[in-house]
Design goal:
51% of the residues lie in helices and 0% in strands. By secondary structure, it is mainly α. It starts with a helix and ends in a 23-residue tail after the last helix.
Length: 99
């Protein structure tokens, strides 16, 4: 590598470090290349979706059981809470069938 190339790589990696990113090498199957790259790209973003993905992957790798009550919590956050819906149905005996 020439001196200019080494300086360019050093500058590039220092700019990555300023953004809080690091370059590293990973060994994996060829079929997983696109998956790992897309996962790394998504995790490099500083968004709530990236934080959720990071937490999900961490839980999956750690082998923790999923938290209980997730469906109930989602229902409680629903905009329909307190809407006073009438969900009662009239009771019908059905129809007569000749066999």
């Amino acid at each position: 590598m020439s001196q200019a190339q080494r300086r360019a790589v050093r500058t590039y990696r220092s700019r990555l470090g300023e953004r809080g990113l690091a370059r590293f090498e990973v060994l994996g199957r060829e079929t997983d290349r696109a998956l790992i790259r897309s996962l790394a790209r998504r995790l490099a973003e500083d968004t709530p979706a990236a934080m959720e993905l990071r937490a999900t992957v961490s839980r999956s790798i750690a082998g923790e059981p999923p938290r209980r009550g997730g469906i109930l919590a989602a229902l409680r956050r629903s905009p329909m809470v307190g809407a006073d819906l009438d969900l009662a149905r009239p009771r019908e005996e059905g129809r007569n069938v000749d066999l």
